[in-house]
C-alpha cells in the first residue's frame, strides 16, 4: 500500500486480523489516515466521482489531504470554480475509489460532500498552503476547464506570495458507506460497512 520505505500496516498484519469485521473496519480508517499523511501511499490519490445533471457521472483523480477518523470525514482541496464544485452543490452525493496494487485492496467510499469556500476551515488551510508550490493550483486567472488559445497556454502564472485566498475551496466528504474488496491468490474477499456514528456495522458479501 505504501512504498517499502514508508511501510504499510495492512501489509505487515497477519491475514487472520482481517477475519473480524470490527477490526477490519477500523483498520481501513487507519489506512486512510496514513494515506493522508504519506504522499507515497497508494490511497493518497483516489478517484472522486460526482453527478452532473447534464453529462451524468464524472470522475477524476484527487489528493486525499486530511482524514478525521472520529467523524469519518475526508478532506480534499480544490478550485472553487471547478465543475465538480457546481456538481456537488447541485447534488452532494459522491463516491471515492482507492486502489492499492501492493495489498490488492480496493476501497469504495460513498457519502455526501459539503463545499466550503469560505470560513475558518478554508482560511486556516489557505494560510498554510499559500506559500507553497501547490498554491499555484488555486491562483489561475481562468477557471479549470476554460478553453485557452496557444499564447495563453504558453503563459506561466507567476506564484504570488501575497495572494489572497484565491479560489481555494475545501471539500468535506462525510462517509456513509464503505465497500472493501481484497484480491488474493487464495480467493477474493469483500465486506460492506455502514457508518453509524462511531460504529461501523459490517457484513461479508460475495466478491
Ligand atoms: C495525481 C492528480 C491529483 C489531482 N489532485 C487534485 C485535487 O486534489 N483536487 C482537484 O480539484 N483536482 C485534482 N486533480 C485534477 C483533477 O483530476 C481534475 O482534472 C480537475 O480537478 C478538474 O476536475 P473537474 O473538471 O471534474 O472539476 C488531480 C489530478 C491528478 C492527475
Give an overview of the whole structure.
With 207 residues, this protein is α+β, with helices and mostly antiparallel strands. It has a single domain (9-141, 158-205), classed as Roll (Pnp Oxidase, Chain A), CATH 2.30.110.10. The chain is built from five helices and nine strands. It has helices at residues 9-12, 21-37, 83-90, 120-129, 150-154; strands at 47-52, 56-61, 66-68, 73-79, 93-100, 105-116, 168-182, 189-194, 202-205. Strands 1, 2, 3, 4, 5, 6, 7, 8 and 9 form a nine-stranded antiparallel sheet that branches. The radius of gyration is 19 Å and the shape is elongated. The relative contact order is 0.17. The model is unreliable at 1-7 (pLDDT under 50). The structure holds flavin mononucleotide (FMN). The site of flavin mononucleotide has 15 residues, from strand 2, strand 4 and helix 3.
Short synopsis of the structure:
By secondary structure, this protein is α+β, with helices and mostly antiparallel strands.
Strands, helices and their partners?
Layout: H1 9-12, H2 21-37, E1 47-52, E2 56-61, E3 66-68, E4 73-79, H3 83-90, E5 93-100, E6 105-116, H4 120-129, H5 150-154, E7 168-182, E8 189-194, E9 202-205
Antiparallel strand pairs: 1-2, 1-5, 3-4, 4-7, 5-6, 6-7, 7-8, 8-9
Number of helices: 5
The geometry reads as elongated
Strand content: 25-35%
Q: What would CATH call the architecture?
A: Roll
Characteristic key phrases:
binds flavin mononucleotide; alpha+beta; elongated; 207 residues; Pnp Oxidase, Chain A; 9-stranded antiparallel sheet
Amino acid at each position: 500500500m505504501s512504498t517499502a520505505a514508508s511501510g504499510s500496516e495492512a501489509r505487515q498484519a497477519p491475514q487472520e486480523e482481517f477475519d473480524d469485521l470490527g477490526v477490519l473496519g477500523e483498520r481501513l480508517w487507519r489506512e486512510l489516515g496514513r494515506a493522508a499523511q504519506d504522499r507515497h501511499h497508494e490511497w493518497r490519490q483516489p478517484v472522486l466521482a460526482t453527478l452532473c445533471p447534464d453529462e451524468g457521472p464524472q470522475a477524476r483523480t484527487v489528493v486525499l489531504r486530511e482524514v478525521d477518523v472520529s467523524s469519518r470525514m475526508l478532506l480534499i482541496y480544490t478550485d472553487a470554480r471547478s465543475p465538480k464544485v457546481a456538481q456537488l452543490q447541485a447534488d452532494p452525493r459522491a463516491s471515492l475509489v482507492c486502489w492499492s496494487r501492493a495489498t490488492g485492496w480496493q476501497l469504495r467510499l460513498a457519502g455526501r460532500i459539503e463545499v466550503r469556500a469560505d470560513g475558518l476551515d478554508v482560511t486556516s488551510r489557505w494560510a498554510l498552503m499559500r506559500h507553497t508550490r501547490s498554491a499555484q493550483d488555486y491562483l489561475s486567472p481562468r477557471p479549470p476547464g476554460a478553453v485557452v488559445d496557444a499564447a495563453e497556454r504558453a503563459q506561466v502564472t507567476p506564484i504570488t506570495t501575497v495572494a489572497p485566498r484565491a479560489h481555494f475551496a475545501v471539500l468535506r466528504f462525510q462517509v456513509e458507506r464503505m465497500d472493501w474488496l481484497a484480491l488474493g491468490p487464495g480467493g477474493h474477499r469483500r465486506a460492506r460497512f455502514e457508518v453509524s456514528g462511531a460504529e461501523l456495522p459490517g457484513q461479508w458479501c460475495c466478491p
